[in-house]
Amino acid sequence: MREHDRTTIHEAMEQQTISVAKAGLVTTLSTRTTVFGATNPKGQYDSNESLSVNTTLSGPLLSRFDIVLVLLDKKNPKLDGIISSHILAQSTKAEENKASDAAVKSTQPLGIKEWTLPCLRRYIHYVKQRFKPVLTKEAESVISGYYQLQRRDGTHNAG
């Protein structure tokens, strides 16, 4: 967050006003509103450091929030395995119930090499409805293992 933005949001939360200067005019606007903020730590969250250090937000700004919750995503290979299995099971069920065979009839004509995302979704749904594909245990194991590897190595990022 830029320093100017920090100053502005601090003023809005502390004094419930914002000072605006445009075209030589200076005015103060009322900002009676709710502020709900979310942030990710810079790198990995370090429980030995303060919240200010982890979020790079100043103490005075953090003190303006009525509630501050720290949600930690702790890596747990056993739980990650359970979650990935659940997601795979739910994904298969959800796709089976989404669209009808009629949606596939509007796919792009033959000869077009790139499919749009909606077209690809309709095709996958059509194949699932018509042919009832099932993931093998080996395929589920590969997908689950990949998910767990991503979690363990921390290579997937929330942004």
TrEMBL record:
The EC number of this protein is 3.6.4.12
Q: Which InterPro entries match?
A: MCM (IPR031327), MCM_dom (IPR001208), MCM_lid (IPR041562), P-loop_NTPase (IPR027417)
Which stretches make up the MCM C-terminal AAA(+) ATPase domain? 1-87
GO MF: ATP binding; hydrolase activity; single-stranded DNA binding; single-stranded DNA helicase activity
Alphabetical keyword list:
ATP-binding, DNA-binding, Nucleotide-binding
Name of the top EC class for this enzyme: hydrolase
Source domain of life: Eukaryota
Q: Pfam families attached here?
A: MCM (PF00493), MCM_lid (PF17855)
Could you provide one GO biological process annotation from this protein's UniProt record? double-strand break repair via homologous recombination
GO CC annotation: what is one?
Answer: MCM complex
Q: What name appears for this protein in its UniProt entry?
A: DNA helicase
- Identify the species of origin: Aegilops tauschii subsp. strangulata
